[in-house]
Amino acid sequence: MALKSSTGAEYARILSVAGARGSRVVTNDEMCTMIDSTPEWIQQRTGITERHWVAEGEDAETLGVDAATKAIERAGLQASDIDAILVSTVSHYQQTPSLACIMAEKLGLNAPAAFDISAACAGFCYGVGIAESMVRAGSATNVLVLGVETLSNYTDLTDRSTAFLFSDGAGAVVIGASDAPAIGPTVWGSKPEASRVIEIDDWRTVNPSVEGPHIHMEGREVFKWATTAIVEKAVETLAASGLTPEELDCFIPHQANNRITDSMLRHLKLPEDVVVGRDIIQMGNSSAASIPLAMEALLESGQAKSGDSALIIGFGAGLVFAGQTVILP
């Protein structure tokens, strides 16, 4: 007797994208009342002019539910149509239950597969890769993938090298069946020997009622890695999709730092007409949420349109990375 295996759609695609941002806008001027810096220096070093933080009554759950609700509606689906939810976050305040399970209840989903992903700034692309495989394998039909972060809660305002970077937001996509290829192969991996280059304090070593836990980062090491190894992986990701740089419409990297994006563009040698996501200018670095937020912003501004091809790649704490070439919803 032979076992049966599950089979699903031949292809998968992103059906919709939506986002939510913390409602408190913190300008560089305000930021410089908290840290020893200047607005000009922050903008020159990162491109950031302002960032979004959660206000009273907002948290990872509220942002995630807001983004997810809009994504489901934009896909033309009901909550009952979602049979899996994947949430990438490093901001959730409990090891268990997962934020995915909490959100499934709040969204009224019907007993979906639900789990969190801990891959920091690469987590959204990890989720896209997993969801695409689930749809094609037949283990799910419509997968809700989110990146949700409230990094302001982990920002060390005594660290002038990182305090101005981080922000709060949620980005969501629904991934379902497609009649044609619309999500290219996932290229992913890690650099485990650099696991401490970006980290959040060990809970065993801090007293949260006094301070922390906080994010810590060796910025120069991250910059070097992102502008060398990750550029190579971006080239590999595009090549794996079968597209050439001349056929690419958009480049939407993790919104880590505008200088990193500029350096990646120089090395990638993309045509000048490729649209580049630069949501970091008004948003700051929202980790797992940054790529879907930047994707939504490009579509809403008209800079990108449905059916465009986009190279997406996330990279961050772990160190980990993941990327795909996708067709925009």
From TrEMBL:
Organism in which the protein naturally occurs: Tessaracoccus aquimaris
Family the UniProt entry places it in: Belongs to the thiolase-like superfamily. FabH family.
Keywords, ordered alphabetically: Acyltransferase, Cytoplasm, Fatty acid biosynthesis, Fatty acid metabolism, Lipid biosynthesis, Lipid metabolism, Transferase
Domain Beta-ketoacyl-[acyl-carrier-protein] synthase III C-terminal: 238-326
Gene Ontology BP annotations: fatty acid biosynthetic process; secondary metabolite biosynthetic process
Entries under Pfam families matching the protein: ACP_syn_III, ACP_syn_III_C
CDD domains referenced in this protein's UniProt entry, alphabetically: KAS_III (cd00830)
Presence of keyword Aminoacyl-tRNA synthetase: no
Lineage: superkingdom: Bacteria
Domain Beta-ketoacyl-[acyl-carrier-protein] synthase III N-terminal: 115-191
UniProt pathway annotation: Lipid metabolism
Protein name: 3-oxoacyl-ACP synthase
